[in-house]
Task: structure prediction
Amino acid sequence: MTNLSIEPSIETFEPRSNARSFLFESAATTETIGRYSFVGVDPHKVITSGPGYSLGEQDPLPTLADELAQFRVAQVPGVKLPPLIGGAIGYVGYDCVKYFEPRTRRDLKDIVRVPESLFMFFHTIVAVDSFFQQIKIFTYLKVPGTPGAENNVEAGYELARQILSETLAAITARVPIPPQGPIKPDQEYTSNIGQAGYESHVTKLKEHINRGDIIQAVPSQRVARPTSLHPFNVYRRLRTVNPSPYLFFIDCEDFQIIGASPEVLVKSEQGRIITHPIAGTVKRGATAQEDDALAEELKNSLKDRAEHVMLVDLARNDVNRVCDPLSTRVDRLMIVQRFSHVQHLTSEVSGVLRPGKTRFDAFRSIFPAGTVSGAPKVRAMELIAELEGEKRGVYAGAVGYFGYDICLLDGTVEEGAMDTCITLRTMVMKDGIVYLQAGGGIVFDSDENDEYVETLNKLRANRACIDSAEALFALAEK
Result:
């Protein structure tokens, strides 16, 4: 362990931000929430799925489970370990839903062209403990007989010590900010459908709602523009202008995922499966008084309350599919949560997994969130696919990790940790283009223009991030 400096996660990660790697952070820093930031570099294995990728077109989760089952973490007496000390880190794109719900499968255009899912497997993880101001490095000693293991425990132990020493030297080395090309600020964003197209989608979905096909649906629009910013410099700026519960940078080598998500998809915590529906949005006020007034307006909005309660019921149904119904509960209901640019109504639903069910069953049951699809979920997703006609890719899917199982002191095995967020407020950078996407929940009395403006409000933080980063680094060039 070593003492932290001012920006430990950024400084720990920067030297290795030019290869497959990840950085997970959180704006919260209590003893239980957002306590750890995690860094991983040089994965020993990468699994991708989708047309033309390693797994092809199939559900990636069984392969993920098989890979994770090859290793276990031994519990250390008297030591409380972070939730992630090795495992699989990456994303499941929205379009993987066709493997979980075959009725949603459609022939869609692939504009951004990234894998439907990607997971990197790490044996060495750096955990930055913000609460106790420590850096902890974890690596694995492979038991003799395990593929790739040393011939004896002593040799394996020495190899692990060497890896720890090399990792410590690397993370304490100081390097300059990543270089980038000349900045060309104020470039225009291009929408894949524009205002008229989005409002047309809203109108058509309202027709389906009035016919009783669905109760709610969540269409989206994607915007894109060129930028010469280094992807990690975008992340550096994002964590400043839009601090969020889930901050992440994933370098997939030929593209990068940069996000500040406000919303848990599903996580496991002390034996419970937890999901956090977010629905209902207003902007932040210019003053504290305006902020409070807008929050009251949100709490008293019949439309937003009705939409939110419906999505909480959907979350309860998803949780009940894999949990003991008697254990399912709504822990928080319609609490206003404030973020850098918007305020949301938020709730929390949890339950205890039934015997024979796993974290992967919970993930399938809840994915994708009702807050990015609609209700009834399957029919809403069918209509979204038919209207949008394009793959959503990373957007509205999930980013997070699945840790290795833990072998307890009594010999029993505890399922590894899972923590995933919805890929909202997320950017994909590929071939010098940055892609942003946002949507909103449509109900029977939605106003087309208001719904379009809501997508702009949700895009505002990431657009501000790009614009301000370009201004900052253009100034640095002079």
Q: What stands out?
A: Residues 104 and 382 are 5 Å apart (CA to CA). The first strand starts at residue 2 and ends at 3. The chain has one domain: 2-171+180-477. The two ends are 40 Å apart (CA to CA).
